Amino acid sequence: MSSQVRRVGIVAKRGLTAAAEHLTSLDAWLHERRIPIVYESNTAALTGSARGDVRADVDVPTDVDLVIVLGGDGTLLSAATCIARAGRDVPILGVNFGSLGFLTEIRIDELFTALDGVLRGTAAFDRRTMLNAEGVRDGAVFDARIVLNDVVFTKAALSRMIGLSVSVSGGFVTKVKADGLIIATATGSTAYNLAAGGPIMHPLVDALVLTPIAPHTLTNRPVVIPGDAVVEVRPHVTGNEDEIYVTYDGQSGYALKEGDVVRVRKSPHALRLVKAEARSYYELLREKLKWGERGGRD
């Protein structure tokens, strides 16, 4: 066993009863190798008889050397944020239930092979860029986040199009009039950005993409910018009918006020993902996006 992994954290999607039997097997496999386990509290409830420490999700990464995530990409995004907030460089082994995820790319039948590779020190890792996002109001930072996929500006359900002024590294770029705007990492390029018509970027590309959502002007197109750029977005809010929201990794957010600024830049924290040995990123794209599935070989 590699001395690199002395304690393992385990996080499963809340209420994922299909994971229960696999958690039991994983518990036995790790205890056979004398590796202590730290369970996220809801995950411990799924096992019924967890042997190990039980903690809130934000506390799981504090003294573990690997986090195993069972669920989907949303569960992994939450775990990645907890790791970054803890200031740890802890890799994640993401196991998907159902179809493959872009982040949780290891199938359940590959779990123990992948885990054995981590313990032996033979596993390969992807290092994924994360973003720091600050909300500034009246000249002071009132909110700070770390995200893996994207920062998204959207309108309220009944709002008209919204207006956003966008600057990059101190230079004004444009005023976007649209249903919203996405600032995505290369990893996040296959999330909301893809659905909005933005480009797919290989996750190791050092770049960000700015993608308008249903822009009023068709010449407002997605723009790929350097990874070290600092993006500032200023909302134009003229009344309740123009409510503008910012959301982080699709999980949480808040309403913006006139005069607010959201500043987004590359985080010093990066996420390490255990790679699936059985397939490349391009194979994952083909499977997820169903390229070439029209009855013959392209």
Describe what you observe in this structure.
- The protein has about 300 residues and is α/β, with parallel strands linked by helices.
- It has two domains: about 10-125 and about 275-290, Rossmann fold, CATH 3.40.50; about 130-270, Probable inorganic polyphosphate/atp-NAD kinase, domain 2 (Tumour Suppressor Smad4).
- Helix content is about 20%, strand content about 40%.
- It contains six helices and 18 strands.
- The strands form three sheets. The chain has a six-stranded parallel beta sheet with strand order 3-2-1-4-5-6, sandwiched between helices. A six-stranded antiparallel beta sheet has the order 8-7-18-15-10-11. It has a six-stranded antiparallel beta sheet with strand order 14-13-12-9-16-17, with no helix packed on it.
- The longest helix is centred in the N-terminal third of the chain and has 13 residues, at about 20-30.
- It is globular and about 60 Å long.
- The model has no long low-confidence stretch (mean pLDDT about 90).
End-to-end gap = 44 Å
Overall strand count = 18
Shape, per Cα inertia axes? globular
Strand order of the largest sheet: 3-2-1-4-5-6
CATH topology of the largest domain: Tumour Suppressor Smad4
Q: Indicate the structural class.
A: alpha/beta
What is the CATH superfamily of the largest domain?
A: Probable inorganic polyphosphate/atp-NAD kinase, domain 2
Low-confidence spans: none
Largest sheet: 6 strands, parallel
Q: What's the Cα radius of gyration? A: 20 Å
Which bin fits the share of residues in helices? 10-25%
CATH architecture of the largest domain: Sandwich
The domain tally reads 2
The DSSP helix count reads 6
- The amount of beta strand, in percent, is 35-45%
CATH top level class name of the largest domain: Mainly Beta
Question: Would you list the SSEs in sequence order as H and E?
Answer: EHEHEEHEEHEEEEEEHEEEEEEH
The average pLDDT is: 91
